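Tutorial handout. Part one gives the primary structure; part two gives the three-dimensional structure as tokens.
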Amino acid sequence: MGMYSSSLISPKGNSGMTLLSSHNDDTTVKFPDIGFDFFYNAINCRTSINVSGNSWIGFTGANEQLKINRRDAGADNIYYANETINDKPIFRIRWEGHQSYSTWGTLDLVWELIIFNDSAMVLVIEKIPNTGTNSFENPIIGTTTLTLANNKSYAFILSQDQGKSYTVQEGSYVQANIKYLIVDGNEIKHWDTASSSYAKVSELPLTADKFQTYGDDTYHKERAGIISTAPVLKIWSPLTEMVAPKVTQTIRPKPIIVNMKDDISFSEAYIKDIINAVVTLDNTGSGIITFIVSVDSGVSWKAWNSSSWGLVDIANMQDVKSKGMSVAILQGITEAQWTSLDLSNKKIRFAWYMEIASSTDVLKLKQIRVNYNTT
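Part two.
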């Protein structure tokens, strides 16, 4: 977590940096592991960042996602360095070249890109002739045109986590040395990696020393080890001015098996057998629903597996998920296949497994209709 600053920063130059590529005309080259996780469009780009002699960066590979005077240019030298700012790791890229591939040694296009370990970035322009394309492929938002000038810096601040979208402003970025602790009742807790849960470090009161000794660099959304129904996240930073942090907790239902309480009876003498089953469903997103059937009032359960009716353990959620029938399979069961289920008891009931992967998923079962063949 950090904050935007309107202050401009200057390029640091190539002293102490590692040379990645020289006399690069049209070649695309890849940086080594940058040393920390960096997310762009929810993809971890730790080992996939590319750069071109035509002055662009590809975060997810050879894709022109950040263009800085992009044209048929030439890079005399491309450098990188692993550095720190406020005790946090950064990866700095420096591109030195020219707007035209034919003018080697004339440096009129020089820029640096600072990548932070929280997926923010700062682009520092030393020289730019503005004879090419300046743009950023902003996830979710789309192509963002950039206005770039000599001796200016531009902050790419996350507006959604994991680099799903950014706001771009002239200025810079301050990544604070932030520490996190949880107050659970009267106890102060931090994240214990060995047990993958929150563990007590002391009683209240909370002091700066306790943050510096026990504080976590990142907060964990898990609640393992927390007793209170209303734990409090505490945040410490040496910054005298800091944007108020915002923690968003998204809750989605756990997978569930729904079991009909009563049988569907078709004991009438004129009903011969089942023709088909028709499902009415709202399923927007990546929701999963699978069906199983019982002809003995829920004592045993079965699913059609493309050749026969196989037993399914309704007490085993994974078994129902993996062996249960999709809507397409259930609706595709033929009259002969329904008859092979042994419907002599003239009753049937359904159960179904439901799961959503995202809070934006919509999964609603409205109706299961059974159509009969009559004599």
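Part three, for discussion. The longest helix spans residues 208-214. The two ends are 71 Å apart (CA to CA).
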